[in-house]
Amino acid sequence: MTAAYRKIPRTRTVWICGLSVISALCIFYISIPALKILYSFWQMEKCPLESSRMLNLDNRIDAELDLFSRHDVQTCTSWSAPIIWQGMFEPDDYDQEHKSKGSSVALTVFAIGRYLDAYLKEFLHSSEQHFMLGLPVTYYVFTDTPEKVPDIKLNPQRSLKIIQVERHKRWQDISMMRMKSISEQIESDIRHHSTHVFCFDVDQLFTGRFGPEALGESVALLHAHYYRLPKWLYTYDRNPKSSAYLETGDFYYHAAIFGGSWRSVKALADACHRSIMQDKKNNVEAVWHDESHLNKYLWLHKPSRLLSPEYCWDTSLGNRSDIQVHRLLWAPKYYNKLRIA
Ligand code: UDP
Ligand code: MN
């Protein structure tokens, strides 16, 4: 066979491969926005209640929630808990109600290893602009390097406590073991000083009002990436050997924020910690760590209040007509640089 004779099929193969790669790339780039549009067409279920007076009320102001001001989203759950969206509530009413009831809030946040330098200062600074303004707030910063916690000027009625914790070797353990520290701190301190607790990831920034409308007995957050997806796409833990195993659930909750009365947050943290330790004993680890355990717990113990993804939005999802305000945004993630092991 001569070289010239072999050249023709080889050139053709190169062309076919090249065109296939280019077509695959085109399909990929076209399908991302198309998928995003598809997501937004997926209808959320409708709130079945006829009036907000039929809600399971966390407080008397909830009876004034306008469940019908938002036709584009789900405003209550099948167990009659409200889902809080812009336009449903009167901010001043919640401010007044919680001031007069004497509500006070403990905010827990962990900044361990490189996460402290990367995020803590901006997190606290933005929180002072937007989180529960007008109510007494105590920050509980859990860190392995207390000396590096930035000195932030706090508004009146707000204070900050630093709690030294060990730095687990694996980032998965840093994330999961927060449950134990939260529970211990509630028992030894928070329960004597605050009526409510909110637990936050540090890799986020407040950008709008995050006020007392978010306070309730047991509060969970709809994950920005999943609130418009069909249930079969939720990433619950599907391993029957894990104690976080969940076949079906109500929603996919995001572990970056959860809260409630100190009593109910302690119960949640204790239960999640117990099931995390049970998994360790059985040598398994849930697919999304503490988030998988949280989802299991909230399936068994329904939250009394849900926060819409306005309360923790990821701007990479683009503009959505149903997200009318950004109250808190995901900060950029630099896993390669920040996670230690
Ligand atoms: N965290 C930390 N140091 C670490 C890993 C995690 O302080 O090395 C804390 C931090 O508060 C972080 C949270 O654990 O926000 C959860 O981890 P991460 O934000 O990386 O999880 P993701 O948001 O990606 O699920
Ligand atoms: Mn995070």
TrEMBL record:
Binding annotation for an alpha-L-fucosyl-(1->2)-beta-D-galactosyl derivative: 223, 235, 291, 314
The family database entries (InterPro entries) matched by this protein are listed as: Glyco_trans_6, Nucleotide-diphossugar_trans
Q: Which residues form a coiled coil?
A: none
Does the record bear Transmembrane in its keywords?
yes
Q: How does it sit in the membrane?
A: Single-pass type II membrane protein
Output one GO MF annotation: metal ion binding
What transmembrane ranges does the database entry give?
12-42
Cofactor or coenzyme needed: Mn(2+)
Question: Could you confirm whether the keyword Manganese appears in this record?
Answer: yes
Which biological process annotations from GO are given for this protein? carbohydrate metabolic process
Binding positions (UDP-N-acetyl-alpha-D-galactosamine): 110-112, 115, 201-203
The name on file for this protein is: Alpha 1,3-galactosyltransferase 2
What organism does the record attribute this protein to?
A: Oryzias javanicus
